[in-house]
Fold SMI1/KNR4 family protein.
Amino acid sequence: MSGDGLEGLLAAVHRLTAQRMGPPVCGTAGHGTGHVCLVPPAGAGLPGIEEAIGSRFGEPLRLVTGTTTEAACGSAGLPLRTPFGERIVEMRAWAYGDRWIGCGTVRADDADGAVRPVVLVAERADPAAGASAPATWVDGIVAVTGWETARARAVDWPAVEARLGTPLPGDYKRLVEIFGGAGAFDGYLQLQVPDAHDRSTDLVRHTEWLGEWARTHGSRLWEPYPVYPAPGGLLQWASTEQADGFYWLTGDPDPDRWPVLAKEDVPDSWERFDGPTGEFVHRMLTEPDHPFSTARWFDVHWYQDYGPAAADEGRV
């Protein structure tokens, strides 16, 4: 492993999570294919390793805590547990494309039974493979990301819609409830959600700020469209780190009929999608010819949980 300390470890993790690398093969005696074990930095404990990986890959799943296997995780991260079996004391997991990243502690397979940290990268199967056709577009997003719906978030939608002055599309509300607070699909598309810690990702505060900016500075950046709360104006519901913006055009009294308008951070780059929000996200994840496709880069998809709003709802 090149580099020193945790930065060297992260560099190795990044290499092993590159897409279409082929099956990983572990060099550890007694281990087989399907994963690669890495050498943790000398003196590094589980909290420091977890924090370092989490700084790049978001909030982990807690697959094993003490001697308890987290039931809500189901088979998630199973390839991370398989090499160590019952010797696992704790295990954390992050999904990233077609790989699982894991760190934890295991008991040595000897009389001493000392507990030591482990880090590994393992294959992650497509969670949607072999699944039946989803009932809704949102169900399809859950299937392709392998997300656990048991970790749903409660939202006071009447209060949110009263502050905004408009009802919101039903499938957007379901996405927020299922996927929770701060996070991004394929580490790319980040929803604007109510009660986010950051104003830029808080649906209500960002909408208020954007409307005030357009009122005082003009809406030239969004031409030829007005900005909400102007009648029929654009209301932003998602963004990316690359400054792409995703909006609804709010002219129809039925929010479930609002088209999606998306633009890159360049003039005259608007793309219109006449369909529900859930369909837009699902096609973005699964169709390579979608104008904002992540399917061109990833064969397997995930939702990257950024915390800390997730912790407020008891999610792991």
